[in-house]
Amino acid sequence: MMMRKRAGGALRITIALTATAALAACASAAKSTGSAGSGSSAAGAASGATLTVADLAPFSGPDAALGPTYLVSCDGATQAINNAGGVLGHKLACKGVDTRGDPADAVPATKQMFATTSNLALVIGVTSDEAASVVPIINASKMVVFAMTGQSEFDSIHFQYFYRLVPPDLEESYAMIAIAQQLGYHKVALAFGNDIGSQTFIQPAVNAVGKAGMTMVANETLDLNASTFRTEAAKIVAAHPDVILTEALGTTDATFLSEVKQLNGGRIIPVIGTSACISPDWYKSVVAAVGAPTLASDFHADNLVTETTGPAYSPFYNAIMSQQGKVGSSGNFATYLTAPGAVHLYDGINLAALAMVEAKSTVPSVYAPFIARIGDGVPGATVVYSYAQGIAALSHGKAIRYEGPGGPTNFDSFHDSTGIFQTDTYSATGAVQVTGNITAAQLRALGG
Q1: pLDDT tens, residue by residue, 337-365
Q2: Domain that holds residue 164
Q3: What is the pTM of this model?
Q4: Number of domains, the chain
Q5: Geometric angle at alpha carbon 142, from 136 and 144, rounded to 5°
Q6: Do the domain assignments include residue 127?
C-alpha cells in the first residue's frame, strides 16, 4: 500500500489484492504471536492517572483536515466523560499523532506513539491513507482502535482489536451512484484524488455505473500536490457529463471545481461528493472557489444517517459545540455535528469508555470484548444515550445498550457496524441539510 500516485484500473486492483494478502498475513502473525508491541498502555496506569486517547490521523499534507476533525470529537467526548466523573477514577485526554496521510510516515509515527505515550487506552482515527500499514501494528500491540478507514479489505480480515462504525468505500461509491440515479443523471464523470483513501472509490463506482445503466464519460485522477487541474477539468467539460463524482481533499476540489466552472462558461457541472465533503474545511475551501449559491443548488453528498434530534443528539451537540473556537474551527463549526469523523468517533469513544467501566479495567485486551456487548445490547438491556446515563445504569447493576448520534450498532464478526445512507446538501448559509435516504435495496442493486 505504499503507492499513492496515479494508477490505472488494473493496477488499482493489483494493489488492493496485494493489500488484502498483506493484511491477512499480518492478522495471522498477530494471532499467533500475541502482542508484538512494546509501547506503554493503560495496563500500568497508576490510580488516578490520566488515560490517553490517541488521534492517529493526518494533521499535515493534503488530508490535513481529517486529524483536527477527529480531535474535535475526541476532545468533546472526553470532556463530557470527565465531567461525568471519568473512567474508574481516571480522567481522559486526547493526543494528536500525525501520519501525514502516508504509510511511509504513518508506520514510524505509530511505533513512536506506542513508545512514548503514557497510559494509552484507545486509538481513534486511522484513515484509508494509512490503515493497511498501521492496523496490524496496533492490533499486535493489543490496543483497541476505532478506525475511519473505508478500505474493503477490513470487511473480511479479522483483527481482534479493530472496530469500525463507517461503511466500506465501495458502499459509499454505490450510494453516490444511487444519488445520481435519484436525480436523473445518465452521463457520469469521476474526479478523485490520487491518495489511497480516494482511489478506493473508483473501481466500485465504475462497476456501479454499468449496473445502473449509466455511461461513464470521463475518469480523471487529481494529483493532490498540483496547483492547477485545467487539463483534467478541460477533459471533463469536453465529455459533457451530467454530474461529477468526486473526493479530492485539501484545496484540490476547490481548485478543480473552480476551473471546471471557468471552462464551462461560468456554470458548474452538478457535483456528488463522498461523506468526507461534509466538513467545514471542505465547504470553506470550495465555497470560496465557486460560491455559496452554486454549492447550494448543484452539490449533493452521501452520508450515513445520523440523529439530529432526540436523547442522543443533545449530549452530542453539547460535547461538540463545547470545542468551538478551540480546534478545527474553520468554516461553519456546526458542520461537525454531521461530519462522519465527529459523529462516529464520538460514539466509539463512549463505547470504549463504557466497556472499561463494565469490564472494571482500562486495559484494552480486557475491555475490548465488552464493546460489542454494550453497543449491540443483550436481551433486557437498558438503552442509554450518553456516557453519563451509561455509568448511572451500570452502577445499579443494569445491562446497557449504548445508542449515540450515529444510531444503534450491529457489529459483525469483523467488528464492522454500518448504518444506512442519507443524501446531504448545503444551504446558502453553509448549513447541512438532509434531503433524502438511500435504501439497502438500492445499494444491493448496484453491487452492495
Answers
A1: 988 889 999 999 999 999 999 999 999 99
A2: 9-168+342-365
A3: 0.83
A4: 1
A5: 85
A6: yes
